[in-house]
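Thread amino acids onto this structure.
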């Protein structure tokens, strides 16, 4: 399998540190070879380990056991942890562009993105809401068809609506949107996670899933018809289910993923159960893309306290999903 392409993220954040520490754990964690798209300076600012500058991804496997392979994508001669700069944001942009291109061309098996600062990127001309939308556009996928999954050892969740005010969620929810998100999730559970008959739980929007219309009608009029249609199409889906009980251990283990109606309904369980090992995976793409489910953490960058667990989990998930796709393509 080809190596993974890892975009360095904002060089002033914890991305360089958790990438380097992941390479240190390559043997104990059983990581596949990966290449950092970025620059050497941000890594040197937080790490004194061995680095191999490469010009093609074919060189990565040969040196990965002895050094962290870095594919330069721009010139950044200096980086100070915790102090973001326009030059650093430009590097993050270039690294993301390179990682997408390498993965789309097949030179990389999958891509993993380290965290970026949206505010810093905006200042250098980045117009996409986040990395997900950029990767989707470059992959030829409409933004609404790129679905965010949060996955950890204990739970997988998918939010139907994401970065909108809570008061706008009921208006944004439609039966068709729920169906599209659900089927993208179910197909990914089959293809990327190897689950032959995936089981999907669909949460309600209101407390107690509306309590038969006494606490809101959206559960009956919007969500329930989507679940019924999923079943009609042959999928294993249940809902709308009360979200306050769904994530209890004896209930959540019945399902392979939970489709949630809004951002916090999906992210709170992942943050509570799998904070240090949470992975953000974009579903619905022709390529595999994962990311550690945390931000740049400028406040702790360079202090040696950032944990690499989520980056390690993102690297492992990307490699596993890419291998399953390759196996399916060769059948």
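Threaded sequence (331 positions):
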């Amino acid at each position: 399998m080809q190596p993974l392409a890892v975009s360095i993220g904002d060089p002033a954040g914890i991305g360089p540190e958790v990438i380097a520490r992941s390479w240190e754990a390559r043997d104990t964690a059983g990581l596949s070879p990966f290449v950092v798209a970025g620059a050497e300076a941000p890594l040197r600012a937080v790490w004194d380990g061995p680095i191999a500058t490469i010009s093609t991804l074919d060189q990565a496997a040969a040196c990965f056991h002895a050094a962290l392979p870095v594919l330069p994508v721009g010139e950044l001669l200096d980086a100070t942890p915790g102090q973001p700069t326009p030059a650093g944001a430009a590097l993050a942009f270039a690294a993301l562009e390179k990682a997408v291109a390498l993965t789309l061309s097949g030179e990389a098996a999958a891509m993993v993105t380290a965290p970026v600062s949206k505010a810093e990127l905006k200042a250098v001309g980045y117009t996409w809401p986040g990395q997900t939308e950029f990767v989707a556009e470059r992959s030829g996928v409409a933004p609404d068809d790129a679905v965010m999954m949060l996955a950890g050892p204990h739970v997988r969740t998918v939010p139907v609506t994401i970065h909108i005010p809570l008061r706008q969620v009921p208006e944004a929810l439609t039966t068709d949107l729920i169906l599209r998100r659900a089927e993208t999730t179910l197909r990914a559970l089959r293809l990327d996670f190897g689950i032959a008959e995936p089981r999907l739980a669909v949460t309600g929007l209101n407390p107690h899933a509306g309590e038969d219309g006494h606490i809101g009608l959206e559960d009956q009029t919007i969500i329930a018809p989507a679940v019924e249609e999923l079943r009609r199409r042959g999928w294993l889906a249940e809902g709308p289910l009360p979200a306050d009980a769904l994530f209890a251990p004896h209930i959540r283990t019945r399902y392979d993923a939970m489709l949630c109606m809004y951002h916090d309904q999906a992210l709170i369980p992942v943050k509570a159960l799998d904070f240090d090992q949470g992975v953000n995976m974009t579903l619905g793409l022709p390529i595999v893309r994962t990311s550690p489910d945390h931000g740049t953490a400028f406040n702790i960058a360079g202090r040696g306290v950032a944990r690499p667990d989520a980056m390690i989990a993102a690297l492992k998930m990307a490699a596993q999903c890419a291998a399953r796709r390759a196996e399916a393509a060769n059948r």
